[in-house]
Amino acid sequence: MLYAILCYHDEAKVDAWTREEDEAVLAKRALVTDELEAAGRLGPSMRLMSTPSATSVRSGTEPMVIDGPFAETKEQLLGLYVVDCASQADAVEIARRLGRDETGGFEIRPLKLYKPGAIKA
Amino acid sequence: MTEIGWIGAALTGARPRALGALLRYFRDLDTAEEAFQEACLRALRLWPVKGPPRDPAAWLVMVGRNAALDQVRRQSKTERFTDDAEFEDSEDPEAALVEGLDGAHYQDDVLRLLFICCHPDLPATQQIALALRIVSGLTVREIARAFLVGERAMEQRITRAKRRIAEGDLPFGTPSQDERDQRLAAVAAMVYLLFNEGYAASGGDAHIRLPLCEEAIRLARLLLRLFPADPEIMGLLALLLLQHSRALARLDADGTIVLLEDQDRALWDRAMIAEGLVLIDKAVRHRRRGPYQLQAATAALHARAARPEDTDWAEIGQLYAALERLQPSPVITLNRAVAVAKVDGPEAALALIEPLAEPLAGYFHFFGVRGALLSQLGRTDEARQAFDRAIALAHTPAEAAHIRQHLDRLMKNGRPT
Lengths: 121, 417
Known about the structure:
The complex is a heterodimer of chains A (121) and B (417). Chain A has helices at residues 11-16, 19-38, 88-99, and strands at residues 45-48, 55-58, 64-67, 105-108, 111-115. With 121 residues, chain A is α+β, with helices and mostly antiparallel strands. Chain B has 417 residues and is an all-alpha fold. Chain B contains 20 helices and no strands. Chain B has helices at residues 3-26, 29-50, 56-75, 84-89, 93-100, 105-116, 124-134, 140-146, 151-167, 177-199, 206-226, 231-244, 270-284, 291-304, 313-326, 330-344, 346-353, 364-376, 380-393, 397-413.
């Protein structure tokens, strides 16, 4: 069984870290992920840019684009795609197409780090 | 990171929101700062034992309020907001707290806190020093160091600025949309000045002043989180990130300025560039161009060029032309002339800057650009005069050293460089 482990943190705090503190956190985590990757147990991992870079697309017959992260608290995270996009507009267009005639929505978050990991499909 | 390190980061992150709410409550900057200070002391004592609260800002507001009210109560008989000890011990204190805090005020609270630092009577450097002290929570010693002045002088400067603020009417009403826009524009300008204060640093002081750039970026992020749909704030953050991405490449080992086209592009910070480009993409969707977006778009064209010769100078020229239409200024025309020189040659650029001789008579970069254009045209004597003038106007040793390189080349071969 594959599990996704989602990372949560207060952005205002993370923004207040110095570069050294940031690197210390990544180094600490690498102790765990390196071991998992060596054992072939680690899938893709990624780090998101902070929410000011986020855009949301609300699904519908005419999907609506909103700046900022997804704010609807009554909806839950159910999955994610990683797509190589030429621009933010490109990503928005893909989310529009994915969500056409649905309810719910998508939060588009550029990645600042992406590692494909060791798990084969 | 040590435990105190984690708590320090949490306190720094929570500061603008917590202090902003305390200022609204007490309507007095000194009282609000003392209340926040007291709350931080309690946090340092309690969080290592009880663990950090889920919403540090809400915790600090509540505890700070109570601490300050206790003081007042000793003199009068004011009611406490809630019981401090009860609050600190309860099972899930933050949930109750967050309800107690009016979430709708949050945006205006933080904006007000930043805005009072932008008092129009205060010179720019005092606005910046005040923002670093009040909003960012830097110590006077840290600020003095960044501005390369004595601690005592900085202390006086900040005290004077605070007094000026206290004398005026602090804006406590809920602002209208127009007022909010005006405040946001003033605050954005202050953040940009703060960044430039660090960016203009050079030579031996560069590493001391770089934190000013990082602080400006942090404040720009804060602004964009408050106003996520404002394309100019997206542009501001993008601009700062794109400029700062070149920090390591801008100075050589001796502290001499390295021109954009001579920089080692491998030293540019790719993560910052990526984020800056995303933000510009986002801003463009709004189709409301503004000065920060245009400047960011210019910086982005440099960032996108793998080699200097790949730079899209024609597009940069057009962006400067658009900026000139929005904000006519001889400095922007001078920048456009640099792009024009690349596309249409030095003669055209020289014609463009000729009318600027008077308004920019005291401007270092004008004579630097003029000297470079003249030397490209082989007008060596005139070029030398322009470079001499530039050296006389240089603000930093790094600026002067850079022009001296031009002069040396001119003397050596007497040919265009």
